[in-house]
Amino acid sequence: MFKRVLIATAVSAMFAAPAFADVTISGSAEMDLMYKTNQNAKGDGKVAEEVAVVVNIDGTDKLDSGDTLKWRLAQKVETPGRYDSFGQREAWIGYATQFGEVRFGNQFSNQYRELDGFASSGQGNLWADFGSQQVQYANAITYFSPKFSGFSFAGQYDLGNGRNSARAMELTANYMGYGFDIDAGIAEAQNNANASSKAKIFGGKTWGSSGDFTVGTGAENKLRTYNLDVKYKMGAFDLAAGYKRNEWNGDVELAVAGDKTAVDQFLLAGGYTMGKNNFNLGYQRVQDSKTDGAKRDDGMNVINAQYNYKLSKNSVAFAQVRHHMLDTAGNASVMTRTAQLDGFALNSDKKDSTRLLVGTWTAF
Fold first, then answer.
1. Positions of E strands within 17-45
2. Which residues form the signal peptide (predicted)?
3. What is the pLDDT of residues 22-71, one digit of tens each?
4. Do residues 75 and 51 lie in contact, with contact meaning Cβ atoms separated by under 8 Å?
5. Which pTM was predicted?
6. Residue 74 per-residue DSSP state
7. What pLDDT shows up at residue 172?
8. Residues 171, 153: contact at Cβ < 8 Å?
């Protein structure tokens, strides 16, 4: 610690009259009031409230070379579930040049951002939070390419334990033009002690935490995720279609035992905007899982509808309904977390689950 203080003092002494870099604060505040059915084995419902405030602190400094040094420090305060301190949500330093941008540190998975952004209006619980993809990389190195005629790509690598035995990597691409917004991605994570049906932080159980790997315990795993999402805007109408494939191999916490498990997902959505009013309707299909070649009757259909009303330039009010329909009662795909299905009791003999929600969201 003493040595670090001396280094910082020596560096700061180089600047007799330091100029301050540009710093901005942004974020969002969301309030949700909801009712959820089938929250226990008896089928009882539950009223719940969620308030989430995200705060981002971003800095930039124009270097003498013409390039830009960037950084972000972010947190999310969510009540009454958890408190995320500064840096757990995001904490990275980046360098932007004419050849692209490189970032180092705690970052979201680019594939997860694609999935979460595509599955808007309440469809992200199964599209982005259920699956073999990672949510966040605490020890990431990321490259973002410049745009070429509407096309761009990004590569991401998590150092894991510093050896090939535990690491994660992904490649994502995007094209925007002629009304289309197309995203594609492929990701692979290897030897994560916390691998399960829920998308998580690579190598960790909490935000910003990493380093919990299976290496040395005799257990191994490998997770792969593929996605292709297409949006098309035509006047006041928005249309979307997506495909995602989840693959789990080895020692993974799933609702079914085996060596190789795969689940395919499909999503169709449409929206219409009229003045301050926006209407959205979506359908999602989670196919039956396959484990070591055997199919399990655990698929489900999801219907989602949401109405948004623009309160101001930065704020919106919304009402949403989300309805899950299981092919077989008690078999909610390979998931082991009730939160992935709006708290629906996985041991229930019910086949349906519904969530009604009203709330507001504002950006700052």
1. 22-36
2. 1-21
3. 999 999 999 999 999 999 888 899 999 999 999 999 999 999 999 999 99
4. no
5. 0.91
6. E
7. 98
8. yes
Domain-wise residue ranges, the chain: 39-363
- In our burial notation (b when 16+ CB lie closer than 10 A, e otherwise), range 38-71 reads bbeeeeeeeeeeeebbbbbbeeeeeeeeeebebb
Say if residues 253 and 195 touch (Cβ distance below 8 Å). yes
Q: SS3 of 182, please?
A: strand
Query: Mind listing the pLDDT tens digit for each residue in 128-165?
Result: 999 999 999 999 999 999 999 999 999 999 999 888 88
Averaged pLDDT for residues 174-199: 95
Q: Read off the amino acid at residue 95.
A: Y
Q: How far is CA 72 from CA 26, 57, 186, 262, in A?
A: 11, 6, 26, 36
**Do 354 and 36 touch, CB atoms closer than 8 A?**
yes
What is the Cα–Cα distance from 244 to 129, expressed in whole angstroms?
12
Cβ burial of 280 (10 Å; 0-12, 13-18, 19+) is buried
Q: Can you state the percent helix, strand and coil of the chain, rounding each to 5?
A: 10, 55, 35
The residue whose two tokens read 């560096």 is: 11
The whole-number pLDDT of residue 9 equals 45
Q: Which residues pair with 23 in a beta bridge?
A: 59
Give the separation between CA 194 and CA 161, rounded to whole angstroms: 14
Give the ranges where the chain is alpha helix by DSSP (H).
2-12, 110-118, 124-127
Q: Is the dihedral of CA 90, 118, 361, 305 positive or negative?
A: negative
Q: Which of 211, 209, 203 is nearest to 87 (CA)?
A: 209
The CATH number of the domain covering residues in 39-363: 2.40.160.10
CA–CA separation, 154 and 169 (whole Å): 11
Q: In degrees rounded to 5, what are phi and psi of residue 110?
A: -65, -35
State the Cα–Cα distance between residues 128 and 112, nearest whole angstrom: 6
Mapping DSSP onto H, E and C, the string for 250-306 reads ECCECCCCCCEEEEEEEEEEEEEEECCEEEEEEEEEECCCEECCEECCCCEEEEEEE
